[in-house]
Amino acid sequence: MAAQPRHIFAWRLLVFAAALTPIGWWSYHVAVGAAGPEPGRYLLLNLGQGALVLLLCTLSLTPLTKLTRWKGFSVIRRQLGLWTFSYASLHLLSYLLFILGLNWTALGEDLQKRPYIIVGALALLILLALAVTSNRYAMRKLGKRWKSLHKWVYAALCLVLLHFLWVVRADLAEWSGYAAVGLGLMLLRLPAVAQRLPRFGGRPKRARA
Ligand code: HEM
């Protein structure tokens, strides 16, 4: 396997530390009793928002690669995508543990009362499919189908935004901010818009994963 340039390794380390820090911070809050009256719900909501922020960051890396021509962004994209999936899985785990208390009868009732959970679960299933096929082996095996499969990330984003909208309902201020960024990133992927993007950074810069 080709050696990894040092700056790519440094970027990876930075992304690792940046993605892990909020989890440490929220756990610390829970441990010292600073997470409010419902620490389980505190973790659930923060992990949900964290997963959405990471999903938007992941999606912003393709336009950034096009703008700057720095291929290193595509190396970090896979790492951020895996963090998105990890946050979303921890979000599900905190729901099962702290909200349901692993009571499977309550799960059936909750799914009827709060259908947005099914929407969230569909988004998580897509993220799972993308996470397990994000390696080089799957890329080789799937060939051209890999790109089509990974376009499903936009379906996941729409489902997550719907899931979030259903939770917040009337309080749209925060949701609108996330939705605007998501919409902007989707527009940037349209060929008509992507072709008009300015290119900085002269020669394409290569970086190996
Ligand atoms: C099986 C999968 C999922 C389940 C069971 C689930 C469950 C929940 C629940 C119960 C809430 C509302 C908490 C409340 O207000 O009481 C919630 C909120 C939320 N979830 Fe999920 N979710 C799932 C998947 C996802 C995924 C995949 C994402 C993002 C990638 C996500 C992002 C969010 C966000 C942003 C909120 C709102 C947080 C806030 O109001 O601050 N969820 N989820």
Automatic annotation (TrEMBL):
- What is the top-level taxon of the source organism? Bacteria
Alphabetized, the UniProt keywords read: Cell membrane, Electron transport, Flavoprotein, FMN, Heme, Iron, Membrane, Metal-binding, Transmembrane, Transmembrane helix, Transport
GO CC annotations, alphabetized: plasma membrane
Please give the cofactor(s) recorded in the UniProt entry for this protein: FMN; heme b
Compartments reported by the entry = Cell membrane; Membrane
Tell whether Cell membrane is among the UniProt keywords.
yes
Q: How does it sit in the membrane?
A: Multi-pass membrane protein
Instruction: Look up keyword Hydrolase and say if it applies.
Output: no
Principal subcellular localization? membrane
Provide the GO MF annotations for this entry: electron transfer activity; FMN binding; heme binding; metal ion binding; oxidoreductase activity, acting on diphenols and related substances as donors
* Biological process (GO), any one: protein repair
Residues of the Ferric oxidoreductase domain: 48-160
The record's remark on the cofactor is: Binds 1 FMN per subunit. Binds 1 heme b (iron(II)-protoporphyrin IX) group per subunit.
For this UniProt entry, which segments traverse the membrane? 9-28, 40-61, 82-104, 116-132, 152-169, 175-194
Report quaternary structure and partners: Heterodimer of a catalytic subunit (MsrP) and a heme-binding subunit (MsrQ).
Q: What does this protein do?
A: Part of the MsrPQ system that repairs oxidized periplasmic proteins containing methionine sulfoxide residues (Met-O), using respiratory chain electrons. Thus protects these proteins from oxidative-stress damage caused by reactive species of oxygen and chlorine generated by the host defense mechanisms. MsrPQ is essential for the maintenance of envelope integrity under bleach stress, rescuing a wide series of structurally unrelated periplasmic proteins from methionine oxidation.
What family classification does the UniProt entry report for this protein? Belongs to the MsrQ family.
Q: What is this protein called?
A: Protein-methionine-sulfoxide reductase heme-binding subunit MsrQ
Q: Which organism is it from?
A: Modicisalibacter xianhensis
Q: What is the lineage of its organism?
A: Bacteria, Pseudomonadati, Pseudomonadota, Gammaproteobacteria, Oceanospirillales
